[in-house]
């Protein structure tokens, strides 16, 4: 009897492990998505590059001006799950010089690296998954024109169980969704453009939306502000502000105020945007004014929320 029970238990374990292995298998883009991509336009890709904030994480820490186009990596993101280190994504052997467009698209749209492993969502593919395929191709074309760096990528420093990438397959089932973050009724073309810039390319929700215990975004509080996903050197978390028009947010800002802040870094009350927003402004300032106006139009019409964090 005990032997039969042991066999049954062993069979259940094997079935469970097999099921886990199947459901957590990395998923790659389909043939139809690849077929939708024409040859990339590097000139157009530069606009995608700045809108996507690639330099903010992948340029060397402290890089300025043209040096921000050298994507050697090295920025450390300290979180509750461990320390993530931004990799070299320059067009070199140490970076992604040997990546095909399909490899690149799998990373952005599916969160899967060239080696077929799940990527950690410190790389915001949960937003980039909403990118239009041709934008992916154009971005790839631009990055391949940038200066190569021979700096090796540094490994992440994560403890068990977060160092087991396979488990990310379950996390993706819960949180990797290429649908819109918010449903808008009859949005104008300008608002649609703003939604794409905020929800996909700009990945604003990755910092401005609170997360649950396992790191998923709480979309019921979309852009309501949050504790920073990063931990400071003092062991404390900063506050990422509410950018909806709800209490504590930017309800008293006009669309022009928002667009100007994204270009200049100055708020309507003569303060300045600081912290990681300085990099965001450096990126946004390189976009055409129509894109900043579109972002502003979107932020003015999304659902308002009170702060998604507690003020002390």
TrEMBL record:
SUPFAM superfamilies: Cytochrome c (SSF46626). PROSITE patterns: CYTC. It comes from the Bacteria. Residues 40-147, 189-303 form the Cytochrome c domain. Keywords: Heme, Iron, Metal-binding. PANTHER family: ALCOHOL DEHYDROGENASE CYTOCHROME C SUBUNIT (PTHR35008:SF8), BLL4482 PROTEIN-RELATED (PTHR35008). This is Cytochrome c.
